[in-house]
């Protein structure tokens, strides 16, 4: 919990400015474990699947594509794509 608070203090201003635009940290390699022996379950964004996945983070080093909660990972990185739907008249209608 202490880590989540420190993370929020350090990254909070970025999250407010970013809104729903995807940040560069979302393009970093996902699930980089780190080199220490303090294992915590964290979340990392996978650009290829547009999903956040849990992974065992060992602390120390790694990269910035790491989030303490699924919600924070999705808020910062997940792209909410519009799905295309074909109406009965053959025209496309956008849905979200």
TrEMBL record:
> MF terms per GO, please?
serine-type endopeptidase inhibitor activity
Which SMART domains does its entry note? KU
> Which chain regions cross the lipid bilayer?
none
Q: Which residues form the BPTI/Kunitz inhibitor domain?
A: 26-77
- Cite the Pfam families for this sequence: Kunitz_BPTI
Cross-referenced PANTHER family:
BPTI_KUNITZ INHIBITOR DOMAIN-CONTAINING PROTEIN, KUNITZ-TYPE PROTEASE INHIBITOR-RELATED
- Recorded protein name is BPTI/Kunitz inhibitor domain-containing protein
What species is given as this protein's source? Drosophila mojavensis
Gene behind this protein: Dmoj\GI27043
């Amino acid at each position: 919990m202490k880590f989540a608070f420190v993370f929020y203090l350090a990254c909070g201003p970025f999250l407010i400015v970013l809104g729903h635009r995807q940040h560069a940290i979302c393009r970093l390699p996902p699930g980089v474990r780190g080199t220490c022996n303090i294992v915590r379950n964290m979340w990392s964004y996978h650009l290829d699947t547009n999903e956040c996945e849990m992974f065992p983070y060992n602390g120390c080093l790694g990269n910035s594509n790491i989030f303490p909660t699924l919600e924070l990972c999705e808020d910062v990185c997940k792209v909410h794509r519009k799905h295309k739907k074909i109406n009965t008249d053959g025209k496309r209608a956008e849905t979200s």
